[in-house]
Design a protein that fits this description.
The structure is a single chain. The protein is mainly α and 62 residues long. Helix content is 76%, strand content 0%. The protein contains 3 helices and no strands. The N and C termini lie close together (9 Å). The mean pLDDT is 93.
Length: 62
């Protein structure tokens, strides 16, 4: 799997899980969703995401 595909999969899963946590557990999980969104915006401008470094070390390719 390519890094870009893995980032989309992990990002989408994280947003879905955080929305479910907001609905079923506690509304303070909205800050997790906000953090994910800010990180996605930042990575769009800088072309770098902290998850990329982690995935490269795990053997994912560009």
């Amino acid at each position: 799997m390519k890094i870009s595909d893995a980032i989309l999969l992990i990002g989408g899963s994280a947003v879905t899980i955080s929305v479910l946590l907001i609905y079923f557990v506690d509304s303070n999980f909205q800050f997790l969703t906000l953090f994910i969104g800010i990180n996605l915006v930042q990575s769009a401008y800088t072309k770098w995401c902290p998850l990329m470094t982690f995935l490269r070390k795990r053997g994912f390719t560009d």
